[in-house]
Description:
Elements: E1 13-16, E2 29-31, E3 36-42, E4 47-53, E5 55-57, E6 68-69, H1 72-75, H2 86-97, H3 103-110, H4 118-136, H5 141-151, E7 153-159, E8 168-174, E9 179-186, H6 191-202, E10 208-213, H7 217-226, E11 231-234, H8 236-271, H9 303-325, H10 337-358, H11 362-383
Parallel strand pairs: 1-4, 7-10, 10-11
Antiparallel strand pairs: 2-5, 3-4, 5-6, 7-8, 8-9
Helix pairs in contact: 2-4, 6-7, 8-10, 8-11, 10-11
Amino acid sequence: MRTPSGLYRTSPTIYGCELSYCPQCGHELVEMSYLNGLKTVQMMNEVSTIAYRSKRCLNADCVSGKVSWPCASWQRIAPKYSIFGYDVIAQIGWERQKARMDFGMIYAGLSERIQIGESQVRYLYQQRYLPLLACHERQHLNELEVLGRQSGLLLGLDGLMPEGGEPQLWVIRELQTGWTLRSGWMNSQDKAAFVEFLQPIAALQLPVKAVMSDKQRALLLAVEEVFSAALHGFCQIHYLDNAAEPIAAADEQMKIELRQGVRAEFGEIVRQKQAEKPSIAIVTGMLPSPLSTAPTQDAPLKPEAAAERERESIVQDILSRVRYLLTLKGRPPFRLAGIEMFTRLQELVVCLQELVEHQPEPRLLKLFTGLQKALAATRPTYLE
Length: 384
């Protein structure tokens, strides 16, 4: 069963075909009475329901037969079968390519203005914006030829992660300019498919200085065949992943040992977490939580009690910081959790030293000595 649209459908704006005479035979066109392309389109500034009336040539001898001629104005608002306007697609492309925003950030901004999901943002960028960009950049063909003869082309090949069972979208860019030379969906990624995909660029007969891609076996063979004179470099992130693999494994082991050492020294203190908030927040719905009464004004605390409350707040903040650091997760090759955990705990030791010199609170003192001991046991591995 089809899910009904949550958008409010307004009275449609109806466009008419701009043609008056048949492009094939010159006979006068007749407007049809029924509507085509009825849909509600979300744009950056409005939601609009649109439709158009097509025209047909009634000349029985016309080669166009019974072709319905559509409306250009209707087609300029949104792509066919899409409920998002071209301005939304352009906004996503701009924020992704110019502002270097990830899809979550783009979604957060757009969701305040239109009804859209993060998966739809990703789809519109990959399946709509990139192919449109490739078509738009055909106007740079003359500039591409000049660039190729002056310095040679630098090509980047990349395939986007496909959905399960779906074709994979591949994009070829000129890296000096960022222009998209080709993009398309490939049902298979063997040598023959890649050769066919690369061949139109080779047909330009422009010098290709270098190619950058993943180290995919079929792609290697295809590039060697089509661009035999070009250097072929590989994506550095894969090399860095491979290079960092033994370091990341050692870092993970160090993180485990450091966490065990910290918990062995003062685990009972860290685990004694005070409840900062009620276990259940305010509940709404058919059976909501009752509204709480306004809190009564507390009597002013004595200086000793106020100081004790402030002291307890500092202790709980320090313990909360330790709990957080013990749960750090790494993202090799650039973020290693063990090294980060050691460094941040070392910074905490410096902070604790100042606090216990000012006032040797028993828990902070135990935390200070325990962290020093745990860090000392792990320091040789950290330095290595």
